[in-house]
Amino acid sequence: MRHKLFKNRSFYTAMLSIALPIALQNLISSSLNMVDTIMIGQLGKTEIAAVGLANQYFFLFTLLLFGTNSGLSIFISQFWGKEDIKNIRRVLGISIISGGIISILFTIGGFFLPEFIMGIFSADPEVIDTGVKYLRIVSLSYTITAISFSFSFASRSVRQAFVPMIVSAISLGTNTLNYI
User: Fold this and answer.
1) Domain carrying residue 178
2) pLDDT tier at 91 (50, 70, 90 boundaries)?
3) Cα→Cα distances 67→5, 23, 63, 99, 163, Å
C-alpha cells in the first residue's frame, strides 16, 4: 500500500495544486499583518498596543468564520465531486448568510460596544481610548471579510485555490502601496 501511495503522481499533482496556493495565501496574509504592524508601530507604543488588543476581537471573529467555512467547505467539496452545482450554490449561500450573521454581531459589538470590548483586554485608559477609535473603524469591514472568507473557502473546495491567493496578493500590494 505504501509503495502505491508514493507512486501516485496524479494525487500529488492535485494535492500540490491546492495546497501550495493555500500555503502561499497564508504567507501573504501574514505579510499583510506584518505591513500593518510596521505602519502602526511607527505611530507609537500606545497605538500598537491598542491595535494589537483590538485585533484579539478580530481574531475571535475570524476563528468563528474559519470554523464555519471549514465545515461548509467539506460539503462543497463533496458536491463538487458529484458535480452537484445546485447544492454547491446552496451551501455557499448558507456560508454567506452564516458569515453575515456572525459579522453583523461582531460589527455591532465593535461599533457600539468598543469600550467594553477593549476593557476586556486592557485597563490602560489611553490604550482603551485609542483602541475604541480603531475598533469602530475596522469593525465596518467585518461583513466584507465574512463574504471574502465564504468565497475563498468555496474556491478552494472546487480546486480553484489560485484565485483567493491572487486576491490576497493584490490586497498585500495595495496595503504596501498605502504604506509607501
Assistant:
1) 56-180
2) very high
3) 30, 18, 6, 11, 21
